Amino acid sequence: MSADRLRLDDHIAALDAPEGLKAVLSVVAATCAQISDVVAGGALAGALGASGQINVQDEEQKKLDVMTDDMLTQALLACPAIAGVASEEKDEAEIGTNAAGEYLALFDPLDGSSNIDINAPVGTIVSVLKSPSATPTQGDFLQPGRQQVAALYAVYGPQTMLVLTTGDGVRGFTLSNDGQWFLTHDAIAISPDTKEFAINVSNQRHWAEPVQRYVQALLQGEEGPRAKNFNMRWVAAMVADVHRILMRGGVFFYPWDRREPNKPGKLRLMYEGNPMAFLIEQAGGKATTDGVQAILDVPPTQLHQRIPVALGSANEIDAFAGA
Ligand code: AHG
Ligand code: MN
Ligand code: MN
Q: Residue 6, class by beta-carbon neighbours within 10 Å (0-12 exposed, 13-18 middle, 19+ buried)?
């Protein structure tokens, strides 16, 4: 069934990329396959429930947040091409001890934590940057997303898939029962038009006026100014919502809102915004903060910086910008 399919290992080996980057991607793919086993084991793998700890984002960590963070951190720091790692779950970036380290990996080890205990999709998101030296500073991690050399996510759903870009389009690989990744989705492209949107409507009363106007018009459907009916989906795991958009189009929003006016949004630039924006742009979609400003051009000021997110089908993001 998969004999004639391209293996991820062979795809990585054939990339027009430095050997160090290939090594980093191989380590991430192998670790995501291991995480998939732990996720699938659920209660049997001791993977459900809270850890009892609070992370730097002031969020209660689940056991799986901690387990996956440890797995990725250890595997990446053991890779000779890695100079340092930064995780959503840790206060500061960790600098490695590899004399030939040339890459930085930044990750959300477990995206969609609230889904773990209900057996709904979760994921892992990874961004890879060049390191200016083998002994990077904390500031060396603060590079705009445009400088990423690779971005990928793994989604642990009915199938485990790994979706990767190295700046040459987007490809999706599916994990087989014996732990091998095979190319199943080549040249992934996002349709420019869509009838599907994703936003957490429970925050509606907190949104700014343009977001209110835009969503109101979608909800009015054929009777409203858009003269078209829209459908809505919200998985509560950005990985799964972005995966749906890569597969069949759509738009996803996590806008700024008034709940905590000093926080620019919920999602994190370095672990969620930038890697997803790289994948979305490479698939022909738009990834912005407000419909116009590209996420990839936002200059980072802090490792755990948050940003508003509006991404997906290009024409629909333009419609949002015009609302
Ligand atoms: P994480 O589990 O890494 O903290 O990320 C969860 C994020 C994102 O994946 C998702 O789209 C969003 O939070 C869901 O937020 P709500 O709970 O407000 O719906
Ligand atoms: Mn997340
Ligand atoms: Mn997370």
A: middle
Are residues 166 and 266 both part of a single domain?
Answer: no
Spell out, as residue ranges, where the chain has pLDDT lower than 70.
Answer: 1
Ion ligand 2: residues, CB within 5 A, are 108, 111
Ligand nearest to the CA of 116: 1
Residue 54's contacts (CB-CB under 8 Å, 6 or more residues apart) are 60, 61
What confidence score (pLDDT) does residue 1 get? 66
Chain segment 169-189, per-residue pLDDT in tens: 999 999 999 999 999 999 999
By alpha-carbon position, which residue is closest to atom 11 of ligand 1? 238
The alpha carbon dihedral of 206, 245, 248, 174 has a sign of negative
For residue 267, list its beta bridge partners: 307
CA distance 93 to 222: 49
Q: How far is the CA of 27 from the centre of ligand 3 (A)?
A: 19
Question: Are residues 29 and 118 located together in one domain of the fold?
Answer: yes
Same domain, 288 and 179: no
Same structural domain, 176 and 203: no
Q: Does any domain span residue 25?
A: yes
Is 120 near ligand 1, meaning CB less than 6 Å away? no
pTM, two decimals, is 0.98
Determine the structural domain holding residue 283 and report its residue range.
Answer: 196-321
Q: Over the stretch 59-88, which tens digit does the pLDDT of each residue have?
A: 899 999 999 999 999 999 999 999 999 999
For the chain, the straight-line distance linking the first and the last C-alpha, in angstroms and rounded, comes to 48
In a domain, 28, yes or no: yes
122 lines ligand 1 (CB under 6 A): no
**Pocket flag, ligand 1, residue 236 (CB < 6 Å):** yes
